[in-house]
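To the team - glutathione complex, inputs and output below.
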Amino acid sequence: MKLYVSPRAPNPRRVTMFIAEKNIRGIEEVIVNLSDNEHKGAAYVAKNSFSGVPALELDDGRVLSESRAICTYLEGLHPEPNLMGMTFDECAFIEMADRRMELSLFGSIANCIRHTHPGLSALEQPQFHDFGHSQGEKMLVVARWLDQHLANTEYVAGDRFTIADITAFCALEFARGLMKFNPGELGLPHLHAYRDRISQRQGV
Ligand SMILES: N[C@@H](CCC(=O)N[C@@H](CS)C(=O)NCC(=O)O)C(=O)O
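Output:
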């Protein structure tokens, strides 16, 4: 299998972190250069018509994109350690936590960065700066919620590490780099400690 990734891009990082947590070997990583718009070129679009990264090319030639879908596939192939739930009940609660992280935390961070950062102007045209800044405010609302949530639980979905922590951590790392987001300085100690804790994991 081949995994199409781009260095520093947060969505491919979700999948590479998932792979590292499971200690999966043998998936070849292929770099796609987003700055050169390689993902919009004919060769890549022929593989992934939706054009983004990550994408996983299976040995039978089919190509799977969407980070969570790729993780679902890999979880099926490599069930241990379980990161997405063992029972339908647990799967549903982990999915709830993961979608909250993806749609609210990751989404507002991505929108803020894509619409305000000059480095992202090649990918996001037009950039709406007011919208970007308002998404930065929305992200803080979620971050405050998450800080309170983590005051009572070690991980986003409860008492064990799951895909929801990967999504949250990759979002927080993206914000750390390009929004200079520092939870401790904003009075969010539980979120700060959480980010530090997850950063100690192998393969991060
Ligand atoms: N929903 C997709 C999002 C993929 C995505 O937006 N990837 C970014 C890199 S982090 C990308 O390919 N951007 C290219 C562009 O915006 O043109 C997923 O979950 O994987």
